[in-house]
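Hi,

I'm pasting everything inline rather than attaching a file, because the server keeps stripping attachments. The sequence lines come first, and each chain or strand is labelled.
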Amino acid sequence: MSAVLAQAVTLAQGGEVSTGEAVAFWILGPAAVAGALGMILARNAVHSALWLVLTMLSLAMIYLTQRATFLGFTQIIVYTGAIMMLFLFVLMLAGRDSSDSVVEVLRGQRLAAGLLGIGLAVLVVTLLGRSLTDTQIAAPLDPYSPEGGGAGGLGRLIFGDFLFPFELSAALLIVAAVGAMLLSHSGGKKTKKTQRELVEERFRGQHDRPSPLPGPGVFATANSVATPALLPDGSVAPESLSRIIDSAAAEEFRDEIREVSGTGPEADAHALITPAEGAEAPGGEGTDGQRADSEGDKA
Amino acid sequence: MTPTYYLLLAALLFCIGAVGVLIRRNAVVVFMCIELMLNSVNLTLITFARIEGGLEGQVMAFFVMVVAAAEVVVGLAIIMAIFRARRSASVDDTNLLKY
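And the predicted assembly:
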């Protein structure tokens, strides 16, 4: 490939298109078109970005064969180096998993878009092909002279005739950088609410209840978190019951509930010697709690 | 072969980019299609500069590159802001102004 490119550059001395350049074009042009088609047809967005890299590299080599050496290397460095890396970065952050949906929001939009694109291509290609039949190519500039086609001549033009647009583009870049920082800034961190603000919000009714939820009645009569808390009148506080435990096995904790609510058999001093039949708990924790109760009664 | 072939290639790439803007739903891919269209215009400008034997076309392509870089930075920041607000990078989900 590089040999072909070198041949293209050396052979295009006159105002004609050399054979080497034609060979390079017929290799690079289809590669560029294939990259573009692959980009719009690839289902995965990352694959689309990689196809676009192929197109941009082919275009950079086409610039080089057209003796726009500075722009060719700028294309490689800026587009495939910086811009495509930025695209991949954003794809990995935002759009990687959202591969395109097959659902058409507008019915038949893809078909219509494809037909329109084909029509546009036929129109433009035939127009250009028929209007630009005999183009006279001017003699190429000497890339090694200061006014020639290299970076020197380009810089002479940019910092001479096009100085004001160049400064405008500098202002544009600064505005773009500041705007990107503004847009991507997440709006500052929210400070944590103080206790006073939380209390005031609770009593204004912004939460469900002014006080926190009651904890389980762990240390009242047992040490199981499944034990419900008791209200001042002795009834079970329903908000202290864990929804998971409550829905899991209400029947399993029947004895504990009965014991805590005071309707079950009382723990007696002879529990360790002859266990009461009705108060025997199926779980290990319930048994421990009962034993603790019994010892407390003994003491 | 004449330099007209480069113009035909550029026109083809432009049409492919336009179709891509119309049929793709991912906002980042739509943005890449816009980049492809800008690149095809750059190819046109460079080809015209070569036909004319001057450098002004290359200067214009240079400025197009500068504007494209600025546009990419701002556009991707907008896409990130939309993604942060709506948890989606699809252009179909950005329909708040429709209703």
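The domain at 4-86 of chain B is CATH 1.10.287.3510 (Helix Hairpins).

If the labels don't parse on your end, tell me and I'll reformat.
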